[in-house]
Amino acid sequence: MEQLAIFSGTLGLSSPWQVTSVTFARESNRLDITVRYEQASPLACPVCGVLGASCPLESENETWFHEDFLNYATYLHAQVPRLSCSCGNIPRPWCRAGSKFSRLP
Region 62-66: what's the mean pLDDT? Predict the structure, then answer.
């Protein structure tokens, strides 16, 4: 469990985001990190402020890539909440300015 907390801190995650698994493939120098959003947490649209009851929560699976996160090619897999209001998506902490993670198609 301590390993997951270290990766959560390194990614700048805080509740309701959490790292749920980390795997490392030494032969390919690849790190895979899985992140989950605790949907039981209250969620409001970051733009209009509408709460989840009026703005139902949906989610989509996303994969993000960082060429050199902790010296490894890193794939971040996340089930990201998406609001059904017309405002858009919830912010992803690993996407902050300078993070170097890019979303894969």
Answer: 96
